[in-house]
Amino acid sequence: MNSFFRKLPLSIKLMLIGLIPLLFLIYLSAQLYSEKKQTVKLIGDYILHVHEEGNISNLIYELEKERKVSYEYALRKDNYSKVIFQRPHTDKAMQLLEKSKDLAIVNFPRYTFLDSLSSVRNSLDNSPFYRADAIMQFYTNAIYRLNTLNPVSSMSSTYLEPVYKDLLSQKTLFEMITFLSIIRTNIYNVLYTGKYKVETLLGTLGVFNIFKSYEKEFLLKGSPSSINLYNTEKDTSSLKPVLAYIDKLFATFNFDSTYDAKDWWEVSSQGVHILRKQQLNLWQNVETGIDKIYQQQIKSKNKTLAFLIAAIIFVITFVIYTITVISEMLSELKIAAQKISVGGTGLKFQNMPKDVMGSLTDSILEIDKNNIELAYAANAIGAGNFNVPVNPRSNEDLLGNSIQKMKEDLHKLTMEKDKIQQETLELMDRKDDFLSIASHELKTPVTSLKAYTQLLQMEAKANTNERNELMLSKMDLQVDKLTALISDLLDTSKMQNGKLIYNKQFFPLNHLVEEIVEEIRIHASKHKIIIENNTPVQLYGDKERIGQVLSNILSNAVKYCKDCEKIIVNLKQVGKGAICSVQDFGDGINETQKDKIFERFYRVTGNDLHTYPGLGIGLFISKEIIERHDGKIWFESEVGKGTTFYFSIPVAETQINNPE
Ligand code: ADP
């Protein structure tokens, strides 16, 4: 399970983290909403109950009226029209109540004996001996039973608190009206018949006590306004004589002549009417109040629903936003890590938090910073700056410690190299000094050697000593070679010190080519030196030195191509430059030697090194001379096929008369 969770992609993990509280929130929301819905339903039901109570009260009212007229008709058989007039009203009230779906009311006719109403009416209409007290009993029972059906419980509920007292007041008043009706009807019966006075009062005493206890309850628990109104009406309105008469009757058990039946019915009707009016007002108040609460609860339910939907949307949005932001930050870190892994630097992060991710960012930046510092240090060390600080981060810092070690080793090596270089330079200087002195010192005796050789040569010629003359002429040639060597050595040391002087003048290069070729031909009888092309070109330069270059490459061609039949010399003008070339058909020069043969004292090493005499300075001097004339010297060669040396020099800009 653990490994499965670890392998899940981060976005899925984050989704799960967001999903759990979200599910919890949805569950809580559903609970809260269903609670609200239930409350709304309860109040809705309650409103229905209150409506039903109105219908019950209405039916009781109509039944009371029907009781009175039916009783009177049963006793005296007059005013039948009143009975006929009243019955449809009663029926209408009953039908209204029969429609109720309230479980407490369904089938009420059976419970209240009203299912026998039509047979009672029939008996009254058709049987001349049907007893009035049976009529009274039937209706009174029905009214009493109906009263007990009152479906509105006075239960206390937080939601109903604003109407609770009014609800209780109207319910108690309802009871009082019912019991007062029974009392006044019984009194009316006595007054109407003049019979069973004490018995009736004794029989009604229990009802009177119930009425009194309800009155007490009303005065204790009712709403202050309804109590005030009741007290006022009890003292001032037509309720006052009714209640006073009843109190007196049940105190004395003696009927006086204050009321006859008719008067009593009228007076007591007014009294009951006043109470009924108050009860109806209260009932309406309750109905309006509960309706208001109901509307408020519906509003609150809808508000709750809207709030919950908004909260869920907010949570989902926030979760998605959080996942996106975290993914973005992680991807920034990934890119940075990838950049570092391929050696990149210069990382930048924006708005990173101060948590694990922040520490990771700091670590990556630290790596980047260290990499830059180490790279800078390595660069500086490479450039020879050994003062640059290298600060390994710890003993485990492989890179830092290696660079530190490299710095130390390199420093040591560089110091040794500098020392050797210094010694080499000193040696070179000494060697140059030696060469300079040696060639200088050699030049004087060689010059006098030349002079004496020539003197002896002249004497041999005069004495016609041919053998001596031949030997002396060979000696003279060797002295010339020696002079040339010494002169070359002297030139290199002058070049080294920048002391070689160039005597520049205008001259035709083609003439110089002819002169030098002639000179070389004397000593290279075996080779056929061909001037293939000799374009007339004017140069401004040191004629002698340029002649030295040509002589050098031409004598090299002869020297390094012993068995060659021909050597081709070429002079032409290309653009503003004169290009002179000497081509031989010898062994050629290996590619690896290409850059080296122009170096001082460089000679191609090989088995036949001593076959070809030389010091390895001819090409060095030639290159120096050509470059001092803003020219270039180079060669093309193919091993086994031969070599062509070229040099180019800009032609003179000012034209001079060609002596030709
Ligand atoms: P030196 O001829 O005295 O050795 P140079 O400086 O004139 O010195 O020449 C340098 C080297 O270049 C020579 O030792 C030789 O190996 C090579 N070289 C020069 N010219 C030729 C040529 N025409 N063919 C083959 N090798 C040549």
TrEMBL record:
GO MF, any single term: phosphorelay sensor kinase activity
Catalytic activity: ATP + protein L-histidine = ADP + protein N-phospho-L-histidine
Keyword tags: Kinase, Membrane, Phosphoprotein, Transferase, Transmembrane, Transmembrane helix, Two-component regulatory system
Pfam families according to UniProt: HATPase_c, HisKA, NIT
Histidine kinase domain span: 437-653
Regions crossing the membrane: 12-33, 305-326
PANTHER family assigned: HISTIDINE KINASE 1 (PTHR43711:SF1), TWO-COMPONENT HISTIDINE KINASE (PTHR43711)
Protein name, as recorded: histidine kinase
Source organism of the structure: Ginsengibacter hankyongi
